[in-house]
Design goal:
270 residues, Rossmann fold, Hypothetical Protein, Haloacid Dehalogenase-like Hydrolase, Chain: A, domain 2, five-stranded parallel β-sheet, 8 helices
């Protein structure tokens, strides 16, 4: 079999609802890597929230985080690292909208740091940012907004996060991307215009001299649509949002709770 690149979303796809990966899934992915295939995490999460899963899987491939805005080799210098940022004026505009969009918090994300604006810090789950607690150093302050962020993250109380994402995109004349995370949380992520997981995977395929036909991708949410459409074979999870299904070639037989990714990969490769 020709060498494949396998792109895996995390939330709602590879991860179970308790943010863990089963031993069976880890073992399956390690066996596939031993056959020479490249397994790549492609997530909306920042690096610091994905790296524990990268390590658990024993990966040595580049990671795609921030929904495609950062492609890098974790903990190593890599000549092909690729970072795309959002003009910070969008962050300032979104902060002005915080009440109208019913945001519990708005965060600006950078590779190694983040800042959070929240009227009530108690509504912020530190685990969302891979830290034990939110400190004063992490609090958003206009004076700290000196760099363009890789992504913006918000948690909203709005009853329909998909409708809100559409409204925000229209507000900004579709000059930025706004997508939802997988899983049960009301999380929206903002990315630079034209940047998504397919954008980053196309870049990575070129680095490794692979074709899109060599790409297999798994996802469950709105922010996986471009990735599944781009891949040679795109799998929507059994638990996928219905909006994703028209972009998928296939659907897994099992959900993320029941090792859906690993069971499909086992059929394909093992």
């Amino acid at each position: 079999m020709k060498t494949k690149m396998i792109a895996l979303d995390l939330d709602g796809t590879l991860l179970r609802h308790d943010d863990t990966i089963s031993d069976y899934t880890v073992d399956t992915i390690q066996k596939i890597q031993e056959k020479g295939h490249k397994v790549v995490i492609a997530t909306g999460r920042p690096y610091r929230m994905a790296v524990k899963h990268y390590r658990r899987l024993g990966l040595t491939t580049p990671m795609i985080s921030f929904n495609g805005a950062l492609t890098h080799l974790p903990e190593k210098k890599w000549d092909f690292e690729h970072s795309v940022t959002i003009d910070k004026r969008y962050l300032l505009d979104v902060l002005d909208m915080q009440k109208s969009i019913e945001a519990d918090f708005i965060a600006s994300e950078y590779r190694k740091k983040f800042y959070i604006s929240a009227e009530n810090q108690q509504v912020v789950n530190p685990k969302l940012f891979g830290v034990e607690e939110i400190t004063d150093k992490m609090t958003m302050d206009i004076t700290k907004i000196t760099e363009n962020p890789n992504a913006l993250l918000m948690q909203t109380r709005h009853e329909d996060k998909y409708a809100l994402a559409k409204e925000i995109r229209q507000h900004f004349n579709n000059d930025i991307e706004v997508d939802s995370w997988g899983g049960p949380l009301n999380i929206l992520e903002f990315s630079p215009k034209g940047v998504n997981k397919a954008y980053a995977l196309n870049y990575l395929l070129n680095v490794f001299n692979f074709s899109p036909e060599q790409l297999i991708a798994f996802g469950d949410e709105h922010n996986d649509t471009e990735m599944l459409a781009f891949a040679g074979v795109g799998y929507a999870m059994k638990n996928a949002n219905d909006v994703l299904l028209p972009f998928a070639d296939k659907q897994t037989e099992f959900s993320n709770k029941n090792d859906g990714v690993a069971k499909e990969l086992e059929k394909i490769f093992l």
